[in-house]
What we know:
elongated, mainly alpha
Amino acid sequence: MAVASTQTGLKSAPVFGVAALVETVKTRVARYRLYRQTVNELSALSDRELADLGLHRSMIRRLAQQATEEQTAQ
């Protein structure tokens, strides 16, 4: 009689899983802080100052998101 068994191995030991989770949380918190800092700095500018930069107030969140992605990609 033939028996087929499959075993699925863990991708990493539980300790490494926790370490990866902690590292992921740290990375996301750092990205969020950078995003909020960028939004706050751009929001503090007047409409005239934003216009001088070629920006509109409605663009702030998108620009902050792009800046955060570019910064963390480096």
